[in-house]
Specification:
Elements lengths: L16 H16 L3 H26 L3 H13 L2 E2 L1 E7 L7 E5 L2 E5 L1 H4 L1 E5 L7 E6 L7 E5 L2 E5 L5 E5 L7 E6 L7 E5 L2 E5 L5 E5 L7 E6 L9 E5 L2 E5 L5 E5 L7 E6 L7 E5 L2 E5 L5 E5 L7 E6 L7 E5 L2 E5 L5 E5 L7 E6 L7 E5 L2 E5 L5 E6 L14
Antiparallel strand pairs: 1-26, 2-29, 3-4, 4-5, 5-6, 7-8, 8-9, 9-10, 11-12, 12-13, 13-14, 15-16, 16-17, 17-18, 19-20, 20-21, 21-22, 23-24, 24-25, 25-26, 27-28, 28-29
Helix pairs in contact: 1-2, 1-3, 2-3
Length: 388
Amino acid sequence: MMAWDMEGYKSLNSNFDCVQQIAFSQHLILMKNQNLKGRKTMKHNTKTIETAWTRNFVKSNCALILVAVSILRVCAFSHAANVNLVGMYDAWGEARSVYVSGTKAYVASGYYGGLHIIDVTNPALPLWLGNYDTKAMAWDVVVSGNYAYVANGFGGFLIIDVSNPAAPTQAGKLTTTDQMSGVALSGNYAYVADGSNGLRIIDVSNPTAPSIVGTYPSPSSAYNMSVTVVGTRAYMACVDKGLVIVDVSDPVAPVGLGSYDSPGYARNVSVWGNTAYLADDTGGLQILDVSNPASPGFLGSYATPGDAQSVSVVGGLAYVAAELSGLLVIDVSNPAAPVLKGDYDTPTLAIGVRLFNGLAYEADGEGGMLILQYTGAPPSAVTNWAQY
């Protein structure tokens, strides 16, 4: 796949007039619709129109189908401000998480999609390399060396040998009683968000025989959605119980340090220095001081138009996957007064985002994987932008 712009439209034959008109009218309705559920319906309706139109058009001019579909998506969905679309890959399934290692992107694609492996040597032209059917809901993935570690919902925790991207194979598996939805890796241990079971710490030194060595229960059996590990601390996003911080210096005996009950539903957390950035669903982006983990303190927040699902932070900028609002780029150099610096209205629902080499790899549900680049000015508090 590739990045498209409307200049290409001018050189296509007049059959595309109907695409532009349909897309434009849908876009106007989306802009006017203030009901989020209605907006979601309109986005799905637009995809239905796209599919029906494609079926009719294929009979007369199949060579232009991909271009036509891409133009429809750009017209109907994309609203870019300081954020450019570099490339995209519309893998089957529902993209929920992307992890980039070297020249490859690994996409956890929910139900039916499994794990996709994409060559992103040229980010403008991602190429499919292979797929592994996880036979459950692939929520999250991290990669180290020749292995991908997948939080696979009720299908448990999978370790997949990806040394041959064209034919990945399962190396190891571990199941529990709840839904595994987030994974982080540090040394020989995987830290897995295991729903109401809390945090599972898994020894992965032998990929063929992973074993649970430690558990930390989430408060009041709250659903642990995701986890981030920095040094000897694990940061758990526990939905209605907010942020929970755990000392994992001894993986066998993790110890709770403190928590912060956020106003929304904690979905994902990113940590930069002594600051935690919480994607808090209806609570938007919450910015917390975690220098004293026993008592995390509120620093500021940003009310995202859509529900904040995931966040990655670098160089004073927070990249937030905000579901119906797409990808938001927020200047958080002054935590007390965050400022929106850029946005990109993605095809469906922005669910996950990770950063790699100056690019944002966004998991967009049925819209697949998008590769986006922020083109605006750096935050005023950042003096050496080149280092990030």
